[in-house]
Design goal:
The complex is a heterodimer of chains A (111) and B (115).
Chain A: E1 10-14, E2 19-24, E3 32-38, E4 45-51, E5 56-58, E6 62-67, E7 72-77, E8 86-93, E9 100-101, E10 105-110
Chain B: E1 4-7, E2 10-13, E3 19-25, E4 32-38, E5 44-51, E6 57-58, E7 67-73, E8 76-81, E9 90-97, E10 105-106, E11 110-114
Parallel strand pairs in B: 2-11
Antiparallel strand pairs in B: 1-3, 3-8, 4-5, 4-9, 5-6, 7-8, 9-10, 9-11
Classes of the chains: A mainly beta (111), B mainly beta (115).
Chain lengths: 111, 115
């Protein structure tokens, strides 16, 4: 079946440092990718997206990089803050259809 | 921005009873709604896709008679967990779309505990 990752790793960073969260996706036909942030007991919150015709997109303090050759997606958070602590998921879609979520990464920000 | 309201946020029910979870798009018409299930420290697993006025499309392995989905209007979809058992305990999340995948908005989730 479709899958985007299987494990839930943890990334611990010091407040103020940059964070890089990685995601490997499985379907080379996927043409749209989204990063979500999920806080405990809440639904996913949109962070940033990127289409397959791009390899980089920047938002406020966040950058998404897409490497289609190796089917890899990354989320970079600049100057990480305690409020950034959460679980981060990448999700992929094909032709505007359903979203398939990755396994997620726990981000812990140490003050 | 687009807002999706999910209710209840938490529910505890006895084994054998049924539980209904509502998902409402508050300020837009949702042509498509999705239901996800999430276990602790795990990712979101898509259960089904519902389009207003038609039958839901269930993902492989999801029991359609167990998880009844109704999308009777462009602003409301419901998920009913029938004859609930402890293994149905989970976090259920809906999302609504006004047409394209980049229009997905998620609800805040429902924590179901079956005792």
């Amino acid at each position: 079946g479709e899958s985007v990752g299987l494990h839930l790793p943890t990334l611990s960073v010091q407040e103020g440092d940059n964070s890089i969260i990685n995601c490997a996706y499985s379907n080379s036909a996927s043409d749209y990718f989204i990063w979500y942030k999920q806080e405990s007991g809440k639904g996913p919150q949109f962070i940033i997206d990127i289409r397959s015709n791009m390899d980089k997109r920047q938002g406020q303090r966040v950058t998404v990089l897409l490497n289609k050759t190796v089917k890899h997606l990354s989320l970079q958070i600049a100057a990480t803050q305690p409020g950034d602590s959460a679980v981060y998921f990448c999700a992929e879609s094909i032709y505007g259809n359903k979203l398939v979520f990755g396994a997620g990464t726990i981000l812990r920000v140490k003050s | 921005g687009a807002v999706v309201s999910q209710h209840p946020s938490r529910v505890i029910c006895k084994s054998g009873t049924s539980v209904k979870i509502e998902c409402r798009s508050l300020d837009f018409q949702a042509t498509t709604m999705f239901w996800y299930r999430q276990f602790p420290k795990k990712s979101l697993m898509l259960m089904a896709t519902s389009n207003e006025g038609s039958k839901a499309t269930y993902e492989q392995g999801v029991e359609k008679d167990k998880f009844l989905i109704n999308h009777a209007s462009l602003t409301l979809s419901t998920l009913t967990v029938t004859s609930a058992h402890p293994e149905d305990s989970s976090f259920y999340i809906c999302s609504a779309s006004y047409g394209t995948v980049d229009g997905y908005t998620f609800g805040s989730g429902t924590r179901l505990t079956v005792v």
